[in-house]
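Quick bug: Cupin type-2 domain-containing protein output formatted oddly.
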Amino acid sequence: MQIIEGAGTWAPPGEGANDWVEQFRVPNLSVGTYCIPAGGLDNQSPHTEDEIYVVTAGRARIVTPDGAAEVSTGSVIFVPAGEEHRFDDVTEDLALLVAFGPAYGSRTPRSANPG
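Here's what came back:
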């Protein structure tokens, strides 16, 4: 058993940018916190892993190719690997507990090193 300190807790991002902090990682799972300030823009790209978001604070809208939905504290969102998604219309500082399966970046192809 392990308590994951700070996961899902709002922290103001530095320099007005969004902030991703990974708090836990094993090969098949990673957990972290993604924060977007009110009025901020989400510029993430699709991930190679399945993803669960739990909104722990704030309000926004999530947009995918299939539609959009308003989210707020307590909302739980599943985004399959490879699906375009973005949070917009962030009206209150947004804190998201994020779980990736397998661990974030573990399916990302490594570039070939010719040397």
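Actually, after a second look the formatting is fine. Confidence is low (pLDDT under 50) at residues 111-115. Closing.
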